[in-house]
Design goal:
183 residues; alpha+beta; SH3 type barrels; four-stranded antiparallel sheet; three-stranded antiparallel sheet; 3 helices; 22% helix; flat
């Protein structure tokens, strides 16, 4: 029984390899006449024309002549409405400037997430996650958010709070808010 060396390669293999290489190299000729003809044809074409610049229409002025009509640019009519709103505002509402701000008042309300609750000594605490991924606990009477948000109620479903925000006329108004339990 004869053993075939691991380095022996059949003559049929060499013949197939030579035929394959010859076939592959036959497509690498220097025939580029069709490409050169196409490039010459493109170069000989007439260049397309450029559209003319559109004509500029002359400006026609308009004179506003509303003799007895209200001037739409006169702000004095709004001044009366602003003064009415200022006199109507509730001057008893204002944030407590003597109160020491709490940690969760450093963050906008929409960046805080309620992640759970915990009960200790009969008090239900909400667990609030900050944008920095720290967990803080709060209960009724604590403050959070940047608009003086006072916690009114903590439940298993969320936090109810009341914010004191500017009314736009130099005063303050109350706005209800909430943070729902995140899943």
């Amino acid at each position: 029984m004869s053993r075939v060396s691991a380095y022996y390669i059949s003559p049929i293999f060499w013949a197939l390899l030579a035929i394959s290489i010859t076939f592959l190299l036959s497509g690498c000729g220097r025939e580029m006449r069709d490409l050169e003809d196409y490039a010459e044809e493109v170069k000989s074409r007439e260049p397309p024309g450029i559209d003319p610049i559109p004509e500029v229409k002359p400006y026609q002025s308009f004179k506003y002549e509303a003799n007895n009509e209200r001037n739409p640019f006169d702000s004095s009519i709004f001044q009366a409405k602003i003064m009415q709103n200022i006199s109507k505002r509730n001057s008893t509402i204002s944030p407590d400037s003597n109160r020491t701000p709490e940690f969760l008042e450093n963050f906008p309300l929409d960046t805080l997430r309620m992640v759970g609750t915990i009960e200790q000594r009969g008090i239900l605490w909400a667990l609030v996650q900050t944008p920095e991924k720290t967990i803080q606990r709060i209960s009724n009477g604590n403050y959070l958010g940047q608009n003086n948000g006072k916690v009114l109620n903590v439940s298993d479903a969320g936090i109810s709070l009341e914010e004191i925000i500017p009314d736009g006329f130099g005063g303050w108004r109350k706005r209800d808010g909430s943070i729902a339990l995140s899943e």
